[in-house]
Write a structure and sequence with these properties.
By secondary structure, the chain is of the alpha+beta class. It is built from 17 helices and 15 strands. It has helices spanning 2-5, 9-56, 59-66, 70-73, 75-85, 117-123, 165-204, 210-226, 245-251, 263-266, 272-278, 317-356, 360-384, 388-403, 425-442, 475-478, 496-506, and strands at residues 89-94, 99-101, 127-133, 136-148, 153-164, 230-235, 240-243, 282-289, 292-303, 306-316, 407-410, 450-456, 461-468, 510-515, 521-528. The strands form three sheets. The protein has a five-stranded antiparallel β-sheet with strand order 2-1-5-4-3, with helices on both faces. Strands 7-6-10-9-8 form a five-stranded antiparallel β-sheet. It is found in: Cell membrane. InterPro entries: HATPase_C_sf, HATPase_dom, His_kinase_dom, PAS, PAS-like_dom_sf, sCache_3, Sensor-like_sf, Sig_transdc_His_kin-like_C. It catalyses: ATP + protein L-histidine = ADP + protein N-phospho-L-histidine. It is an enzyme of class 2 (transferase).
């Protein structure tokens, strides 16, 4: 099977054409040979019988028989008829079956041994017979010679016109050879046409063989399935011809009926048709689709200096931002640990100074104070919050708050078990990290910089709440607070709360924003434990 796949297209096409033409030639030649044999045999039988009748009705023949001088009077006529009809022999016999005329002169005057004379001499009938002679099988037409005696007629002899069957078949074979010769010409023309056909097909397939095309198709399908970026392609009419699995997932295309539709009906915000008209490559074009930001690269397909289509690759900027936020959280956690290390180093230096100055009571009180704070935090983080990811985030944020001289207070009533599996690490990092960072930004210019964090898992929901003592959120900005790009902190911002809302909604949760009576904002997230 593998070797068969390696046979070239030209060999397959030429082999198929040659085989079909040969089968047709053999079939037609067989049918023709059979029909020609039957038809020629019928024609020869009729010719033999008709020729014999014609000779029997010649007055010269009857006169020659009566005068018993057939050789002198009728022999030339018989030879002429024999040449005209191309017969092998013409035999004339009298009533007593004595041969008067024969192709073999030695037979003249001899008595005939032909048993077929009975029908003609006795009954006066005309018949065709097939007899065997030394020269081979013979088709014979035999008729009686009727003599008219006025009041009566009688049979005075017989005429036989004979044809050799091998001569008949030789004629048929000659005709078949003519047909075969013409068929060979047709076969040669078919082969030449097959060569030009395969060249045309190979030109359309860029010189690739069928097995190479199938291999490329399988590789193309595997590559498109493995690429995480979205890939779409359109033809020169703007009709969608390709969309890979990643593109369907990112664009929420769960059906296959998009193929063949115009790109403007499928993705009206993507100006692919402009690239189709201009032929210019576009890179890093940002397009918002279904509240998601995508980065598109549009590349024209050029063939013979004409744009015949466009291929576009794109990726989800929201996902990139989410990954960046996750990396930022890890970095912040690392920075927080570094800040805590730096802070505890200073505290150790302070203790060292107290001990050197023999201010033991101050050192004791300082240790007790730090121990109480540390014990309180650890009791909440490690004894009440059992999810290690939440613990790590809070430890990092505590370090960051300490470095920024802010107070991050963890509600003593906080309690949560391991988070459900459908809430991934990146999700919880984005939600908690962005809410706390947003609260840090809100209290950055306050005299007292305080942020409170709370998490509980009582009931059917996991409730996360972040409170700050900033200025709060005005009513006119609450609706646009989670919009993509909304920020009061400058350009290239406004992704944090947008990502939070997007993740919360993807987890079938909700987020609420309210203001405290004395100022400050409260962000509350509700995440169902079961989806």
């Amino acid at each position: 099977m593998y070797k068969f796949k390696k046979i070239t297209l030209q060999t397959k096409v030429l082999g198929l054409i040659s085989t079909l033409i040969l089968l047709i030639i053999i079939l037609l030649a067989s049918i023709f040979a059979y029909l020609q044999s039957v038809d020629t045999r019928d024609q020869v039988e009729q010719l033999a019988l008709q020729s014999a009748k014609t000779i029997s009705l010649m007055p010269e023949l009857k006169v020659a028989i009566e005068k018993n001088d057939l050789e002198a009077h009728f022999r030339p006529i018989a030879e002429q008829v024999k040449d005209q009809v191309q017969a092998d022999n013409i035999i004339i016999e009298n009533r007593k079956e004595i041969i008067y005329s024969h192709a073999d002169p030695s037979q003249v005057g001899e008595k005939s041994l032909d048993h077929t004379n009975y029908h003609a001499l006795i009954f006066g009938g005309s018949n065709n017979f097939e007899v065997y002679r030394e020269s081979g099988s013979i088709l014979s037409g035999k008729v009686p010679i009727i003599g008219d005696y006025g009041d009566y007629t009688r049979v005075i002899g017989t005429v036989s016109v004979e044809f050799l069957e091998k001569d008949i078949y030789k004629n048929i074979v000659s005709r078949i050879k003519t047909i075969i010769t013409a068929s060979m010409l047709v076969l040669i023309l078919g082969i030449i046409g097959g060569i030009y056909l395969t060249k045309s097909i190979r030109k359309d397939t860029l010189g690739l063989e069928p097995h190479e095309i199938s291999s490329l198709y399988r590789e193309r399908s595997a590559i498109l399935l493995s690429i995480k970026e979205g890939i779409i392609a359109i033809d020169q009419k703007g009709l969608l011809t390709l969309i890979n699995h990643s593109a369907k997932m990112m664009l929420n295309f769960y059906e296959d009926d998009y193929i063949g539709q115009h790109i403007q009906n499928v993705l009206p915000n993507v100006k692919i048709d402009e690239v189709l008209r201009s032929g210019k490559t576009l890179h890093n074009i940002e397009v918002t689709i279904n509240d998601k930001m995508f980065i598109f690269n549009l590349i024209p397909i050029i063939e013979n200096s004409q744009v015949v289509g466009v291929v576009s690759s794109f990726r989800d900027k929201t996902e990139l931002k989410k990954l960046i936020d996750t990396i930022t959280e890890v970095r912040d956690y690392s920075e927080g640990l570094r800040a805590q290390t730096h802070e505890y180093s200073n505290k150790l230096y302070l203790l060292s100074g107290y001990l050197q100055l023999e201010r033991y009571q101050d050192a004791f009180e300082f240790i007790q104070k730090e121990s109480t704070i540390h014990h309180h935090r650890n009791r909440i983080i490690f004894n009440q919050i059992h999810d290690p990811n939440v613990q790590a985030i809070l430890l990092g944020k505590l370090g960051k708050a300490s470095e920024k001289k802010m107070i991050l207070e963890i509600d003593p009533d906080s309690y949560v078990d391991l988070l459900p599996k459908h809430i991934e690490v990146a999700d919880i990092i984005t939600i908690i990290g962005n809410l706390i960072d947003n609260a840090f930004d809100a209290v950055a210019h306050q005299a007292e910089k305080k942020v409170t964090f709370s998490i509980t898992s009582l009931g059917n929901d996991i409730i996360i709440e972040v409170t700050d003592n900033g200025k709060g959120v005005t009513e006119d900005k609450i609706d646009s607070l989670f919009s993509l790009g909304f920020s009061s902190k400058g350009e290239d911002r406004g992704y944090g709360l947008f990502n939070v809302k997007h993740i919360v909604e993807s987890l079938a949760g909700t987020i609420e924003v309210t203001n405290e009576k004395n100022g400050g904002a409260i962000f509350t997230v509700y995440l169902p434990k079961k989806v």
